Amino acid sequence: MGNIFYGIEPSVYKSQINVPYQWWAGETASKFFMVLRDDKKILGKQCPRCGKVYCPPKKTCPSCFTETNSWKEVGPKGKLISYTIVLRQLAALQKKVPVAFGLICIDGADNAMLHYIGDVDVNNITIGMEVEAVFADDRNATINAISHFKPLT
Amino acid sequence: MAKRRVAIVGTGQTNHKSHRPDVNGQELIHEAVVRALQDAELSINDIDAILIGNMDHFEGINYVDCWSIDGSGGYHKPIMKLTTGGTTGSTLAIGGYHFVASGMFDKVLVIGWEKNSESDTTGAITTAFDPIWDRLVFAGAISGLAVEAQSYMAKYGATDRDGARVSVRDRKHACNNPYAQLRKEVTLEEVLASPMLADPIHLLDVCPRTDGACAVVIASEDCAETITSTPDWIWATANRHTYSYLGDVNWGELDSIADASKELFKKSGINEPRKQINVIEMYQPYSLAGIIWIEDMGIIPRGKGAEYIWSGATDMGGELPINPSGGVIACNPIGATGLIRCAEAAMQVMGKAEGRQVPDVNFAVSTGFGGCMWTDMILHGKNKPNL
């Protein structure tokens, strides 16, 4: 293969896209986060039509297209629906590998929440295992008010 | 060509505001969808497919078609996302028309939305332009508009005072619209004294940033008249893109709207738009466009736009009211903006525009405008069109 750049100085324009964002959580998520921070309680929200309790809470039930109307305290225990273990230290990871991400169906809820699985040898994580929320000592009104979920056995 | 007639049978929009911290994007979308379904007296189960769109990068959520389901009602339905910059909302309406006119779907829900408060407008819009040539600061929201205005003023002798008269009109009209963001009249002096953002465009000449959503239900002729006794029939649509590089544009005249108008009026047998069209909802992001683009549309001869505006002909009660809703200068949730124009035009035809209703509307035009000077247009009519 010949030199495809013969006689040409290949010019590359380097730049970056830097767009700042601020996402409004909305009233429903905000209430969930405030109760999590202030009372260390996990809330779900129930659809009046199908009875499903959503945690993370939803303002509208996606299958019924009905506004959820009642808050229910759920958890702090739950069941691990599925998980993955991250072994490569990607720049965006906030923790040191190995990091276990789990989808946790909180007791009393019908959907699952994404969070870290911690306080466990990652090789011992199994689908279906019982887990419990561990609250952060220094809590702000975000999902990080829960530090991680730890297996009960 | 359309295989069958198509009508808008219901519209809904949020009460648009600068910030909606009480809802996330999905919840905002849901408000508009519920209102559109209520207006059409339909349930989400009646809807066959959904089209949704917003501006790329504005909320930093790329797969809005999937992400929005909690709000859109799209659970287990076909959904497609369309995004074409400023024209997103009008392109969504045209896409909905295609979905139904083609015979593929009977009842389509079209949703445009934006949470403009969640990001940086100019930063996001800059990504629409060529990274090698056109991404100096110029390529944001306002600079291209200022270049158009400068070019037009040099050609035809218009002034920023002429532009201000358009702002005064739109802001006055917005007071009749409970959904508009800016519902306070402004005077010529206030517009001219407001900060100069990009010469000759002052702060009060240009659109605000808005959080809002709009939804429209589009139905086939097989069911439109059973849904509503006053469907808004879509007579024709037209879409034009001209250039992608800023240096190729014919500044001072909007070639895309001129060409789209010709197609729209030819398709529907309109020879004298000024007389045959009763109301226009124009995607007019800044004031002088309200003068330039009605010339391009062939409503007024070149260079006569300002005189026509000053005569009051485009005010409520005038010969051809433009933007009874208050238009884009009063409210601009960008991904929804083009669809709001469409919905407002539909409401005029359906007789549902309440305090901003123009009497006896037979034909209404709605438009969409985007970035490098492209255009969408829709002709709405009270009577059934010929196929």
Walk me through the structure:
The complex is a heterodimer of chains A (153) and B (387). Chain A is mainly beta. Chain A has one domain (26-151). Chain A is built from 1 helix and 10 strands, in the order αββββββββββ. In chain A, the strands form 3 sheets. Chain A has a 5-stranded antiparallel β-sheet, with no helix packed on it. Chain A has a 3-stranded antiparallel β-sheet with strand order 2-1-5, with helices on one face. In chain A, strands 3-4 form a two-stranded antiparallel sheet. The longest helix of chain A has 14 residues, at 26-39. Chain B has 387 residues and is α/β, with parallel strands linked by helices. Chain B has 2 domains: 6-120 and 210-227, Peroxisomal Thiolase, Chain A, domain 1; 121-208 and 235-381, Thiolase/Chalcone synthase (Peroxisomal Thiolase, Chain A, domain 1, 3-Layer(aba) Sandwich). Helix content of chain B is 35%, strand content 18%. Chain B has 14 helices and 11 strands. In chain B, β5 and β6 (201-202) form a beta hairpin. In chain B, α4 (88-101) crosses α14 (334-350). The chains are: A mainly beta (153), B alpha/beta (387). Chains A and B meet through α1 of A and α1 and α3 of B.
Question: Which helices and strands appear, and what pairs or packs with what?
Answer:
The complex is a heterodimer of chains A (153) and B (387).
Chain A: H1 26-39, E1 42-46, E2 53-54, E3 60-61, E4 66-67, E5 70-74, E6 77-86, E7 99-106, E8 113-117, E9 130-135, E10 146-151
Antiparallel strand pairs in A: 1-2, 1-5, 3-4, 6-7, 6-9, 7-8, 9-10
Chain B: E1 6-13, H1 25-40, E2 49-53, H2 64-67, H3 69-72, E3 79-81, H4 88-101, E4 107-115, H5 121-126, H6 143-156, H7 160-174, H8 188-193, E5 196-198, E6 201-202, E7 211-220, H9 221-227, E8 232-240, H10 255-267, H11 273-276, E9 279-281, H12 289-296, H13 305-310, H14 334-350, E10 363-370, E11 374-381
Parallel strand pairs in B: 2-3, 2-4, 9-10
Antiparallel strand pairs in B: 1-7, 1-8, 4-7, 5-6, 8-11, 10-11
Helix pairs in contact in B: 4-14
